[in-house]
Amino acid sequence: MDMDTLATLAIAVGLAMDAFSVAVATSVALPRLTGRQVFRFGFHFGLFQAGMPVLGWLSGQTVAGWVEAWDHWLAFGLLAFVGGKSIRDGLRSQGELLAADPTRGWSLVMLSVATSIDAFAVGLSLAWLRTNIWSTVLIIGGVTGGLTVMGMLLGRQLGARFGRRMSVFGGLVLVAIGVKILVEHLG
């Protein structure tokens, strides 16, 4: 394995860590985890994580300043919203069910976007470095998809062991990831 491949794998794992954490946090809130939910999460997170660098690469320097001005606020807002919902659901009584499946619809889209915004910036830098974008995004998407599936399965185990408290914990993790993104960009 050459240095470029190792560097790409390191970038892919780094980008996938937020998706992994969100997968763990989200799966603990689900009353039952199905193969379909795991596939949807892994597929969408991998797709968005691969697509955002392509958009960044295509955008080049033209929008870099504009995106950097607000990307951290968008990621924070999306993660805080979904995390707050998870905390609320975890604090509900046992008889109340989750209002919506976070592996479907707009919740899935919001989580996919929130965890892949940094990949847009990576795409911008890849354009400047004249990197082969297509092999790079295949690796990024594959690694993210795989780590997301692992995160979902790990979260399910934690949820089964610790119950609804993990939903509150998972929500706090989502909010903390959003705060971390915000602090890194503002500080």
How would you sum up this structure, described in words?
With 187 residues, the chain is mainly alpha-helical. It has one domain (3-186). Helix content is 83%, strand content 0%. It contains six helices and no strands. The protein has helices at residues 3-27, 35-59, 64-91, 105-129, 133-162, 165-186. Helix 2 runs antiparallel to helix 5 (133-162). It is globular and about 50 Å long. The protein starts with a helix and ends with a helix. The mean pLDDT is 81.
Write the layout of secondary structure elements.
Blueprint: H1 3-27, H2 35-59, H3 64-91, H4 105-129, H5 133-162, H6 165-186
Question: What kind of sheet is the major sheet?
Answer: none
User: What is the straight-line distance between the termini?
Assistant: 36 Å
Which spans have pLDDT < 50 for at least 5 consecutive residues? none
User: Per the principal axes of the C-alpha atoms, what is the gross shape?
Assistant: globular
Number of domains: 1
Rg from alpha-carbon coordinates: 17 Å
Q: Please give the count of helices.
A: 6
What's the number of extended β-strand segments? 0
Per DSSP, what share of the residues sits in E-state strands of 2 or more residues? under 5%
Q: Summarize model confidence as the mean pLDDT.
A: 81
Report the order of strands and helices.
Answer: HHHHHH
Share of residues in helices: over 70%
Structural class: mainly alpha
